[in-house]
Amino acid sequence: MLSFNSFRIVCQYRALLHPNWLMTNRQAVSKTVTCSAHCMSTSFPTWHSNMNLKAPGKETKLMFYTNTVSSIRTCYTSQVNRNCWNCKQLLDKTPAFFCMSCKVVQPPEEGISFFSIMDCDYTFTLDTQKLQKRYLQLQRSLHPDNFSQKSVKEQEYSESYSAFVNKAYQTLLKPLSRGLYMLELEGMCIEEGTDSGADSEFLMELMEINEALDEALTAAEANKIGQDTKGKLSVLTEEIDAALHKGELQAAKALLAQMKYFANIEEKVKEKLSELM
After folding, report:
1. Angle between helices 152-173 and 128-142 in degrees, nearest 10
2. Which of 3-17, 95-109, 248-262 has the lowest mean pLDDT?
3. Residue 162, CA distances (Å) to 49, 58, 104, 106 in order
4. b/e per residue, 224-242, with b = 16+ CB within 10 A?
5. Average pLDDT over residues 45-57
6. Separation CA 277–CA 275 (nearest Å)
7. Are 98 and 148 found together in one domain?
8. Does residue 104 lie within any of the structural domains?
9. What's the domain range around 259?
10. Which of 241, 237, 228, 243 is nearest to 260 (CA)?
11. Residue 142 is part of a domain; what is its CATH number?
């Protein structure tokens, strides 16, 4: 079992690697420390095997960050035992869509993350094909049409879970919404507005792109702007992934703000193309 002192040492080491980490994750750390003994003993399985306190390398720091975040997520969703609303048997899986004993559908679990629901790794570059496969699988089993002959409560729970799965899928499918959600899980958000945190040079670039798009007279001109925008989004995706892996949340936040602007331009390109065709 991981003792409190061991966990404190781990947090101190993490803070040395990234000074902003402790401040950014203060709430998460506090919740983790107060978890039950079972949660503490099962949520941190790989720290000792992946840490090298004397000579931490790049790979070590990356693995440490990934394990820390995923462990905190696990701790959030496993500290409260749940029982089936119908037969009262203990639900031994998280997430629990159905009771293994009486087979009835369960209500969505409060506080569970979209990554857990969709059985995805907590990473910005998740496998979208796996995500889509999981989505179809869950909707086949949870869709309200399957419960039309069931009790009112089962119909309500199936509708709730089906809607929750759909929201999780839509959020994690696209890089922008996925990244924003990851920042939200870390207690951060990107403010509304077009100039929040953006420098004048970047805003000027956006203005020029928008003006060029407004003045485009042919589909070829609009497509050229669209291709350039896709290239910028691809570069931003790589940079955001690197920042999140390093635990540099402020850098990831700034990059996601830029991605938000270029994603808006991408949508405008689609609208322009529909006008020109």
Report:
1. 170
2. 3-17
3. 39, 40, 15, 11
4. ebbeebeebbeebbebbbe
5. 35
6. 6
7. yes
8. yes
9. 200-276
10. 237
11. 1.10.287.110
> Has this prediction a pTM greater than 0.70?
no
* Tally of domains within the chain: 3
- What is residue 189's predicted lDDT score, i.e. its pLDDT? 74
How many DSSP H helices and E strands does the chain contain?
13, 2
Of residues 51 and 119, the one with the higher pLDDT is 119
Residue 188 resides in a domain: no
C-beta neighbour count of 174 within 10 angstroms: 13
Polymer length in residues for the chain: 277
d(CA 159, CA 166): 11
Residue 248 lies in a domain: yes
The chain-wide mean pLDDT, for the chain, equals 77
First vs last C-alpha separation in the chain: 64
Q: Please check whether residues 42 and 105 belong to one and the same domain.
A: no
79-124 residue pLDDT tens = 468 899 999 999 988 899 999 999 999 999 988 999 999 999 999 9
In CATH, what number is assigned to the domain containing residue 220? 1.20.1280.20
The answer to whether residues 18 and 70 belong to one domain is yes
Number of neighbours of residue 61 by Cβ within 10 angstroms? 19
89 and 166 co-located in one domain: yes
Which of 78, 113, 130 is the last residue in one of the domains?
A: 78
Whether 190 is covered by a domain: the verdict is no
Residue tagged 């394990």 (tokens):
67
Q: pLDDT tens across 160-186, in order? A: 999 999 999 999 999 999 999 999 998
The residues, any chain, with a CB within 8 Å of residue 122's CB and separated by 6 or more, are 66, 69, 70, 73, 113, 115, 182
